[in-house]
Amino acid sequence: MNQNIERIEVFLDESKEPLQVLTSPPFKVTLDTRQIPDGPHTLRVVTTFKGGQVEEEVIDFEVDNLPSPFIDGLDDGQQVRGPVEFEVVTGDYAAPKTGGGLSIVGAVLSAVLVLGLVWFYFAFAPSAKEIVKETGAAPVEEAAAAPAGAGDAAAGKAVYAAQCASCHGANAEGGFGPALAGAPIVENADQFASIVKNGLGAMPPFAQLSDQEIADLRAYLGSLGGGAAEAPKEEAAPAPAAAAAVDPAVMSEGENLYLASCAGCHQPNGAGVATFPALAGNKNLADKDLVIDRILNGKVPMPGFAGQYDDQQIAAIATYIRNSWGNDFGPVSPDEVAAKR
């Protein structure tokens, strides 16, 4: 369960009143399409988080429950005399629909997958850097005079430290999120601003940032280059020498706590879902301090658990996720947790 969701509102077409408001899982909606006219419609799903952030999904779909009625026994223009008997033939709601097509949920998931793959390509593929340069150079030059194109790297560093460093690393070297230092996506102002404003994949939206702050952030990341942030990442990846000393009792306690408070978002198998990253096979869990800080203090949309669990329990959760699903990074002690509170 995502404890940070305040409500989910579902709107149909241009209606100002929500079709349904969901405040607790399971977040399921049943839409009886027989109650709305055949033809194109729009479903708008608005998720409001307790921190004030809002995410919106718009889904276009078409209802086709009934074919047009037709008259059997009386032709258009036919001459008749006396009593006439004919039948009005209409469709059947229960009749199975023919033809293929994706369901609404399938269409949304497909769109998210395609957009994620496109973003991943332009952000990390070596050949994409030249494509971004060629296709993005003219718009960037034309916008140079606009406020969003005149970023202040010094101001952007402050924005990055406050909003981005906990996921992407103190020096943009990568953490739970990908490395941004020297990433080609930083070179494309429009794509960069869109991802920051709207989020993508596991990254939440930062709609509260102004255009100028996004321009400052982009200027700062552009100033880092590709190699400046690599050294800290190497230093921050400790070798899992203590992995053999993991206590099975601590692992068992950590598993129970994880299933109670974490599995609703990160999944029981650590595979992650939506904006919550996978923990299985996640090399960033080698950073013990990062894991402790994230469990204690959270990071939107993830809540913190400092007020819910004591040092022993936090240590058990950290130990469990660092040594499950292919991870082998060793234990975390209650004293290490206490030092981070």
At a glance:
The chain has 341 residues and is α+β, with helices and mostly antiparallel strands. The chain has helices at residues 104-124, 126-142, 153-163, 165-168, 189-198, 211-224, 230-235, 248-261, 263-266, 288-297, 311-322, 334-340; strands at residues 5-12, 20-22, 39-49, 54-63, 70-72, 87-89. Helix 8 crosses helix 11.
Choose one word for the global shape.
Answer: elongated
Task: Tell me the total number of β-strands.
Answer: 6
CATH class of the largest domain: Mainly Alpha
Do you know the CATH topology of the largest domain?
Answer: Cytochrome Bc1 Complex, Chain D, domain 2
Oligomer: single chain
CATH superfamily of the largest domain: Cytochrome c-like domain
For the largest beta-sheet, the strand count, sense and barrel status come to: 4 strands, antiparallel
Q: Could you tell me the radius of gyration in angstroms?
A: 27 Å
Number of domains: 3
* Number of helical stretches of at least 4 residues: 12
Mean pLDDT, to the nearest integer, reads: 77
Give the helix level as a range of percent: 25-40%
**Which residues form runs of ≥5 with pLDDT under 50?**
94-102, 134-148, 227-242
How much of the sequence is in beta strands?
5-15%
Order of helices and strands: EEEEEEHHHHHHHHHHHH
Cα distance spanning the termini? 25 Å
What is the annotated CATH architecture of the largest domain? Answer: Orthogonal Bundle
Which structural category fits the helices and strands?
alpha+beta
Spatial strand sequence of the major β-sheet: 2-1-3-4
